[in-house]
Amino acid sequence: METTDVAIVGGGVIGSAVAYFLAAQPAFDGAISVVERDPTYSACSTTLSAGSIRYQYSAPVNIEISKFGVHFLANVADYLSVDGEAPALDFVQGGYLFLASPEGVAILEANHAVQRRHDAPVALLSPAELKERFPWLEVGDLGGGSLGTAGEGWFDPHALLHGFRRKARALGVTYLADEVTGIERSGNRVTALAMRSGARLACGTVVNAAGPRAATVAAMAGLELPVRPRKRIVYVFDCRAPVPDCPLIINPNGVYVRPESGHYICGVSPPAAEDPDTLDLEVDYRWFDDVVWPTLAARVPAFEAIKLVRAWAGHYAYNTFDRNALLGPHPEVANFLFANGFTGHGLQQSPAVGRGLAELIALGAYRSLDLSDLAYERWGAGRAVREVNVV
Ligand SMILES: Cc1cc2nc3c(=O)[nH]c(=O)nc-3n(C[C@H](O)[C@H](O)[C@H](O)COP(=O)(O)OP(=O)(O)OC[C@H]3O[C@@H](n4cnc5c(N)ncnc54)[C@H](O)[C@@H]3O)c2cc1C
């Protein structure tokens, strides 16, 4: 049987970020293995995501996580260069624009106060100010908007994932193309992974980074996790009329849109009653026809005449408890660590979460940024993180 010090189940952006930061951590000199069932990454959340980052959260820990995320993306060459070559992230700092109805303005203002306390560069705009800045925007039904004025934007998720992976490997991390099918325990310790190939891997610590399949992996160790796969669809369209300086717009009903390499991408999360647990990737055009396009056409008249080009579906690892990350050790099985339940914001959280879990493993505590608000054990304690801005 092979042996490793830290075994990471899942080599998507989260597993690869943990692997990179741990390998780069001077206090750690153990062996790190990442087990990934699909090295093409064709169906993982990371590859299929909308690739965006924002400061505009209501929970302080999420704002602080994004501050490191923006710093990391803007300085990625300092972290992830291999042989002088940095990942080409195509990071566009185009900003998020959260729009609110007159009734929703109070929430926008409360969030703004929290964001400013954490030095996030955001500005509240009245309908008249919105119109002046974005003349192509319909503002008649709005009470206001909140605009990210620096840092927020979008980038290539695949390039970030491969940047973490390439650098992790350059630092000595082993990637195994295999599927974890069982986790062995001896009392309150996990001791080994069993793999589809028949191989077994003895390990000192296990990190669950299995994305939408995280609850299945936790169950292999006899542990529970309130994370389920939920489908989200991204639609791509062309628009001939110019919409200059278009940020990532979030409408009051949750419909989002942003520019993407000469096209636009858009989507919406379905209501809870129509949001089943599923691992299928079939695209349903009903949401585009019934909700997304009518909302966009009313908000931006230029979007009345658009051409749908294509669409894809991916999975949120949806935290049914409070829709935020669940991090760190199980309270009883202390060498099983979670990095799960990111819902719609795991890509942008990967730098801070990778760094944080690496500190937990190597140093026994968070050092750079305290992520303990997001501890796995808050679920058992019924201590929900209140985050109103989940898209
Ligand atoms: C449509 C959509 C839009 C999104 N938009 C954004 C956004 O704009 N910004 C943002 O920050 N986030 C966004 N997200 C969320 C983000 O993509 C995820 O939170 C993030 O990618 C999670 O990364 P992960 O590594 O946990 O999961 P994944 O990328 O799914 O990686 C998990 C890996 O684990 C592997 N695995 C699973 N089980 C096993 C096993 N038993 N053995 C071995 N390997 C296994 C899988 O093959 C997979 O590669 C979006 C998601 C979707 C679906």
Record keyword descriptors for this entry.
single chain, eight-stranded mixed sheet, 10 helices, binds flavin-adenine dinucleotide
Outline:
Helix content is 28%, strand content 27%.
Could you characterize what this model shows?
The mean pLDDT is 97. The protein is 28% helix and 27% strand. The chain has ten helices and 18 strands. The longest helix is centred in the C-terminal third of the chain and has 18 residues, at 346-363. It is α/β, with parallel strands linked by helices. The structure holds flavin-adenine dinucleotide. Flavin-adenine dinucleotide binds at residues 9-15, 35-38, 41, 44-46, 48-52, 179-180, 209-213, 217, 232, 234, 314-317, 342, 344-348.
Produce the secondary structure layout.
Blueprint: E1 2-9, H1 13-23, E2 32-36, E3 52-53, H2 60-74, H3 76-80, E4 96-100, H4 105-117, E5 122-125, H5 127-133, E6 144-148, E7 153-154, H6 157-170, E8 174-177, E9 180-186, E10 189-195, E11 200-208, H7 214-220, E12 227-239, E13 248-250, E14 256-260, E15 263-267, H8 286-299, E16 306-319, E17 326-329, E18 336-340, H9 346-363, H10 377-381
Parallel strand pairs: 1-2, 1-11, 2-8, 4-13, 11-18
Antiparallel strand pairs: 3-7, 4-6, 5-6, 9-10, 10-11, 12-15, 12-16, 13-14, 14-15, 17-18
The structure holds flavin-adenine dinucleotide (FAD).
Flavin-adenine dinucleotide (FAD) is lined by residues 9-15, 35-38, 41, 44-46, 48-52, 179-180, 209-213, 217, 232, 234, 314-317, 342, 344-348.
> What bound compounds does this protein have?
flavin-adenine dinucleotide
Radius of gyration: 21 Å
The number of E-state strands comes to 18
Structural class: alpha/beta
What is the chains' assembly state? single chain
Largest sheet: 8 strands, mixed
> What gross morphology would you assign?
globular
| Helicity level | 25-40%
Distance from first to last alpha carbon: 44 Å
Mean pLDDT: 97
Question: Number of helical segments?
Answer: 10
